[in-house]
Amino acid sequence: MRRYFSLGILALCLLASGLAHGASGWERLGEREVDFRGDHDRIEVGRNEGKYKQLQIKVKNAPIEISNMVVTFGNNQKFNPKLRHRFAEGSGSQTIDLPGERRVIKQIDFNYRSINRREGKGIVEVYGR
Q1: Considering the chain, what is the average pLDDT of its residues?
Q2: Which class for 121: exposed (0-12), middle (13-18), buried (19 or more C-beta within 10 A)?
Q3: Backbone dihedral region of 50: left (phi > 0), alpha (psi from -120 to 50 degrees) or beta?
Q4: What is the topology classification, in CATH, of domain 25-128?
Q5: Per-residue pLDDT tens digits for 1-58
Q6: Burial environment of residue 36 by CB neighbours within 10 A (0 to 12, 13 to 18, 19 or more)
């Protein structure tokens, strides 16, 4: 009986942690590795991934400077948030509100670079909700 009670508690904890993660609504749209020189890259999101109203950027493994970002929607309209920022390793952006209603994102283009050569390559992740 005690074993079943422990398993039930474990199952409830796992369920609660899964619900808490999904409650935020943030979905990972993609990531790119950044090297030491100036770089341009694209995250292809696609039509089947859903519709989004907000974006957020997270940086891992090394500090990164983002000098430009262009979001292309499913209807080929473009949005260029005024984003020029140096992100510390492990940091992220504030929520970036997209114009209009929820829409499909086709792709996201970035200009960025790693700031410190000694810390290795950084990773830029983009989340949407």
Answers
A1: 81
A2: middle
A3: left
A4: Jelly Rolls (2.60.120)
A5: 555 444 445 444 444 444 444 457 999 999 998 876 668 889 999 766 689 999 999 9
A6: middle
Burial of 34 (C-beta count, 10 Å sphere; 0-12/13-18/19+): buried
Q: What is the 3-state secondary structure (H, E, C) of 52-84?
A: ECEEEEEEECCCEEEEEEEEEECCCCEECCCCC
Alpha helices, H only, the chain: 2-23
The distance of Cα 88 from the centroid of its chain, to the nearest Å, equals 15
pLDDT at position 102: 94
Here the tokens at position 85 are 């920022």
* Model pLDDT, residue 117: 61
Give CA–CA dist 73/52, Å, rounded.
Answer: 10
